[in-house]
Write a structure and sequence with these properties.
alpha/beta, 29% helix, globular, disordered N terminus, disordered C terminus
Length: 688
């Protein structure tokens, strides 16, 4: 592990250590046992094939159906496995803070709806290997559509609802879908987003031929849509008019009299879905997930990481458009017979900072999985967690965080304030990516709960051969920051490649450190084998020849009692290379002199990191620009601060936050005492 193979120290890992070692020494044996949790049409006789290509192929001779494993087997039960029928058990709870809707689908009801919609798609000619783009808000039809695609062997590509037309068009061009599934619109606090007009514009922009059909789920909060009449596509039509080639159908009309579809067996190595993640070149990367490895890994993770099993409620407070939504809203809970929760709302403002705790109490949630930014938003609005304490949270076994580093200050607040009366409910930071599909590092509550260290994502999950390397590919000592990489073969459930782009896959992940897949994150192992993920590798600040982690500086700043959240970036400097500058958001109701705050934060950084870490400035802002999944847009902030041109990221949650930040940066900031003067555009001016 840390230090390039250094064994985990610290606690005597009576369960974790041997399991982790077995997963590395004999991965075939380890994953063969895990695969017994899945119902196979053709059971695997070969567990892993590492010879065909750079990425391992898991269960290459096996066949299964993911939808059957998520639904049918729980409805019908299993005599051989001594599993009872869960036909009447809740499978999906839909809770909309936007509409007030509360709907519970049993396993039998969800299976019936999935089979019906799968039959409707099959009637439209959608078959095995066809791509289907799902562009839906957080409504039950999103879950139904995903499982229906899996049922007939179609490959779904979920696009976050509300993504702009150019982003949707780029995914249409890459995936070349035969069908698009959308809705009349999505609901946000104070506004609505109409989806069909975005789809029409995207189809105009797309360079590939139009899909054959577009299915629209009408929502009562939007006017009834009148679809354009279907017209045959002709090659002579210019691309701007090809949108009429797609036949637009109402969801209810599409499923009327549809024959329920039986599950279609597919190869374990066949793609289940494509999920696009941002690319540095502007073209999104289509991460491909297979069926077999995905089912095995997610089932194993539910029991061993999250400690959630049949009949228990798991709530991943994410979106189906992100990997968390794919893995832990839709697939993993259903694969193990648990109950999953689909929430349409926000952590604050729908209606208040008690929204999450109302959902936990009302639905007896066992595990809540959310992003640190959600906790920071709740902390800012309700610093004493008064609203949380008005609800009965006794059902909560654990609170998991991922998506961005859980800074120690937020961890300390949550454990000391939010969970003050629940010492038996750990707050677990864990780390993974779109590419891996399930956790790389975690505290494995279902295997062995280890001591928690604030700021650490705990230990490597079995299956992941994790190392920290320097720029030359050499292992670094514990406590030394470097590039976090995963030794090959990657475990099942991780990406099998990029959709129709092997060259880019090699360049993006495999070429930098031969024999390893790069994560793009930097961090270090401590002496006990715990991993500390400090941020993206390009978030390292180079100051006077010293590499400073933006994450470590942020941790020092976030510990200040006035700070709700912060972001640190490197400001270009002709003498020092870069200087760290912090943008901070104050807790609600806090008033403090900006100069005093700045001096106190500079002192904290010096005390906790060292004299070399001289914080250049601290600027109070009303909010930080973030993606819809909660990641702070540090790269865009760097571009604005440096005076560079930039594009508003398609994933941005609220573009007005970025615009307001730009105005504040351009207007200038308090100047640092000393010889350096900062121009209004943020560029350093070095006097002669």
């Amino acid at each position: 592990m840390g230090g390039g193979g250094r064994a985990t120290g610290g606690p005597e890992n009576q369960a974790y250590r041997p399991v982790y070692q077995t997963s590395l020494v004999d991965p075939a044996e380890f994953w063969a046992e895990a695969a017994e949790a899945i119902d196979w049409v053709t059971p695997p006789t070969q567990i892993v094939d590492t010879t065909a290509r750079s990425m391992a192929r898991w269960f290459p001779d096996a066949r299964l159906n993911t939808s059957f494993n998520a639904l049918d087997r729980h409805v019908h039960g299993s005599d051989t496995a001594d599993e009872p029928s869960r036909a009447d058990q809740p499978a999906l709870i839909y809770d909309s803070a936007m509409t007030g809707a509360r709907v519970v689908f049993t396993y039998a009801e969800l299976l019936a709806k999935v089979a019906e919609f799968a039959g409707a798609m099959a009637r439209l000619g959608v078959g095995m290997g066809d791509r289907v783009i799902i562009y839906l808000p957080m409504i039950p039809e999103a879950v139904i559509a995903m499982l229906a695609c899996a049922r007939i062997g179609a490959v779904h590509s979920v696009v976050f609802g509300g993504f702009a037309a150019p982003e949707l068009a780029a995914r249409i061009d890459d995936a070349e879908p035969v069908l698009i599934i959308t809705a009349s619109g999505g609901l946000e606090p104070g506004r609505t987003i109409e989806y069909p007009s975005i789809v029409l514009q995207a189809l105009d922009l797309a360079e590939t031929s139009a899909p054959r059909h577009v299915i629209v789920k009408q929502r009562p909060q939007f006017p009834t849509i009148h679809f354009p009449p279907p017209q045959p596509a002709t090659e002579s039509l210019p691309s701007s008019t090809e949108t009429v080639a797609a036949q637009w159908l109402d969801w209810e009309d599409a499923i009327r009299d549809a024959q329920p579809a039986d599950p279609v067996p597919v190869a374990a190595t066949d793609p289940l879905y494509i999920l696009y993640t941002s690319g540095t070149t502007g073209k999104p990367k289509g991460v491909v997930r297979d069926n077999g490895g995905h089912a095995v890994a997610l089932s194993w993770s539910m029991r061993n990481i999250y400690d959630v099993g049949p009949g228990q409620v798991m709530w991943a407070a994410s979106d189906v458009g992100w990997v968390v939504g794919h893995s832990y809203i839709v697939y993993a809970p259903l694969l193990v017979g648990a109950t999953t929760l689909l929430y349409e709302g926000k952590p604050v403002g729908t209606p208040d900072a008690g929204a999450y705790w109302r959902v936990v109490a009302e639905h007896n949630v066992r595990v809540l999985f959310t992003a640190p930014t959600a906790l920071r938003a709740i902390r800012k609005a309700d610093p004493e967690a008064a609203l949380a304490h008005t609800y009965d949270l006794s059902s909560l076994r654990a609170l998991f965080c991922a998506g961005e580093r859980l800074d120690p200050a937020t961890y300390e607040w949550a454990t000391a304030t939010l969970l003050a009366d629940r010492p038996d409910c750990p707050l677990v930071d864990h780390w993974w990516q779109t590419e891996t599909g399930w956790p790389i590092c975690a505290n494995l509550l279902g295997l062995q709960q280890l001591p928690i260290k604030a700021g650490s994502a705990s230990v490597p999950v079995p299956g992941y051969r994790l190392r920290v390397l320097d720029a030359e590919g050499n292992p670094v000592a514990p406590g030394t920051e470097g590039n976090i990489v995963i030794g090959l073969p990657l475990p099942p459930g991780t990406l099998t490649g990029l959709w129709r782009d092997e060259d880019r896959f090699q360049r993006s992940y495999m070429s930098a450190f031969p024999g390893h897949c790069v994560t793009g994150d930097s961090g270090y192992f401590d002496d006990d084998g715990y991993l500390y993920v400090l941020g993206r590798s390009d978030d390292v600040i180079n100051m006077a020849g010293h590499r400073l982690s933006a994450g470590s500086i942020e941790a020092a700043i976030a510990g200040h009692e006035a700070i709700a959240e912060c972001a640190v970036i490197g400001l270009p400097d002709e003498l020092k290379g870069q200087r760290p500058i912090a943008y901070v958001v104050l807790k609600s109701g806090v008033e403090i002199d900006p100069n005093r705050l700045r001096d106190e934060l500079i002192a904290r950084v010096r005390e906790q990191i060292g004299a070399i870490a001289t914080l250049h400035d601290a600027v109070v802002v009303s909010a930080l620009p973030k993606t819809r999944s909660g990641k702070i847009l540090r790269k865009t902030m760097r571009q604005i601060t440096a005076g560079d041109t930039y594009e508003v990221p398609s994933t941005i949650e609220d573009a007005s936050v970025l615009a307001a930040l730009e105005v504040q940066i351009r207007a200038g900031r308090p100047q640092d005492p000393g010889p350096e003067v900062v121009a209004p555009n943020g560029d350093p001016i070095v006097p002669p």
